[in-house]
Amino acid sequence: MAIQPIRLFGDPILRTRALEVTTFDKELRKLVTDLTDTMLEAPGAGLAAPQIGVGLRVFTWNVDGEVGHLINPSLDLSAEEQDGPEGCLSLPELTYDCKRALSVVATGFNMHGEPVRIEGSQLLARAIQHETDHLDGVLFIDRLDSEARKAAMREIRQSDWFATDQPVIKTSPHATRGFGF
Question: Residues in the active site (predicted)?
Fold first, then answer.
């Protein structure tokens, strides 16, 4: 069991599109195990590889006692929508109602490179969409309407976990004659 630290909002990897997995080897199986262990320990309904600092298209889920993983996902979303509470392990203690497709058919691969097809609705559909968004550098707060997004950003800035350290800008003690700060 290898619990990994979860990257928080502000980490650039959370805004970077993850790369397709091309090699299904022992290292990939370890990544899936680390993701699963970390997700279960957190606990969360899902966890994507970028959330533990790995830029690959891999995620895990834990919904209604079903634990699984998907690699290189492709989604087919229903036209019918659901609107409900959503949170994220990379945005601790933040929950907002977010619109998602009511059901999803996800295809991809398991850790052994075998094709997988997952059909889900309600919470499983939400988790699969949320984690696939992570692989595209999209956070659930990006899907909120502008008023809710502003409220979420305000809550993030006021949170204890958000990095409030501003970069220090040093100025020269010497005359710069307009060529510097």
Answer: 131
